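Whether sequence alone determines local backbone shape is best considered at the level of individual chains. We regard such an encoding as a compact summary of how the chain folds. The sequence in question and its structure tokens are set out directly beneath this paragraph.
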Amino acid sequence: MITVVGDRESDIFEIFQQVPDDNMPLIVRLFDVIHFVLYNMYNQEIGARKVDYFPTKLAAGAAFCNREKEQEELLRCLNNVSPVLLISPRRYGKTSLAIHVLDKNNFLYVHIDFYKELSEEDIASAILNGIGRLLGKIEDTPEKILTLAKDFFSSFHIRAAIKTVGIEIEFEQKQKSPINIIAEALEKLEELAVKKQKKLVLFMDEFQTLAEATSHHGIEAAIRHAAQESKHVCYLFSGSNRYLLKEMFQDRKRPLYKLCHTIYLKRIQPEHYIKYIQAVSQEIWGSSISDKDLHLIFSLTQRHPYYVNKLCTLLSFQEIVSDTIILSVWENYVLENRTSVEGEVSLLAVNQRKLLFAIARNKETKELLSKEFSHALSIVPGSIPRAATALRNKDYIYENEEGYYQIVDPLVHAVLNL
């Protein structure tokens, strides 16, 4: 049974009649029906507009806003084959920035996301599959790609299959350690790049996962050796856990110490947002947004890239924009996400929750160690630094340029102030 919310039951019937009545399996016909209905509902909501002006996932093309200084800095590193590290909180646009620069400048690259990799074997498999996809970009025919893959992976005891995205590999048996597999693969990739006279980029995203998935630093050492010796393969690292990444790249006891040039992404300045949003507002509403309403958007979202785009996306479905509508839309969004945020915060230790609530509700939290502050929270003064460190490590709070503690995520800030 298919259920559609609203007045769309007639759409189901009409579209169902359009599906060819042949001998295709019922599940395929139902899939087509659902697909057509959802597509129809979506088009009814957004009308003729096809451009996602405010993406909450990957920002590409015309939807990519500013970051000009960071683009230049990243491009300079890539051109010089210098290892580079992008750091920022989650949903700040690290991946969008990297892919925008790589695509815009026609680099041969592969994006390897470590987010779901839970072991050393997973990390090794992700890197080899990434290299397999990269091989698919080096040659231009299936035959050449398969020949290249056969030669490249001949010593790894794996099964390779050609896919639309390149070569997909699967381990047939375990003979080498993940560390040795990675070291050998990266060495062979550099040799291939030299032979083909190609400049390649390995973009390793959510790289802090490596520290969580391994009990030692062997893979870090293998990557360090390859990156510092490379002349044709550039290593681009990115991640969202600033604490773990700083440990990996700034602790002199770790293999990756001082390997990379580091780029910290900050919040986009208002003037850059204003220029972009006003241009888009002409497309959506046929008029500009008032300065007062723009600054209300920035105040509610705290110029956090994800939430600026999210709020603007929700506003784009409104016929007009006003301060009343902006507040209403944002409040509805906060209420819709209240349960999930409260559930996440409830997992924190009691002192961490107390401190988080205090910072959220006090706009000028600075002296965490004062007697007055600890007394107000009913926390022993010595416990506050530990709670603050834990919240920083989990990316709940940060210390701004004026030395005040603030909540990283404006949604969490809003929920805690309900």
Remarks:
- The chain has a mean pLDDT of 83.
